[in-house]
């Protein structure tokens, strides 16, 4: 799962993983809300892209570039 593109003006924009709603290793289903991210004043929910166990790659409050991996599901 990648940090979503919330700023179309600058694809290199850095955002923050505000909140994880799951813990590392939790089971998730496709389209479960797993995190909230923020770029400037825009916040968005991140949905699971598949079903399985989620592995978090970015901790809460981590600064992440748009498009960067923040979690994997296997």
TrEMBL record:
Keywords: Acyltransferase, Lipoyl, Pyruvate, Transferase
Listed transmembrane segments: none
InterPro entries registered for this protein in UniProt: 2-oxoA_DH_lipoyl-BS, Biotin_lipoyl, Single_hybrid_motif
One of the Pfam families matching this protein, by short name: Biotin_lipoyl
GO molecular function, one term: acyltransferase activity
Lipoyl-binding domain residues: 13-73
Keyword Acyltransferase: yes
Protein name, as recorded: Pyruvate/2-oxoglutarate dehydrogenase complex dihydrolipoamide acyltransferase (E2) component
Species of the source: Nocardioides soli
């Amino acid at each position: 799962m990648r940090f979503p593109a919330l700023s179309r003006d600058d694809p290199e924009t850095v955002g923050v993983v505000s909140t994880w709603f799951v813990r590392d290793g939790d089971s998730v289903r496709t389209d479960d809300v797993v995190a909230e991210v923020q770029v400037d004043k825009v916040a968005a929910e991140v949905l699971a892209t598949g079903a399985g166990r989620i592995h978090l790659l970015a901790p809460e409050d981590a600064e992440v570039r748009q498009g960067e991996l923040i979690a994997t599901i296997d």
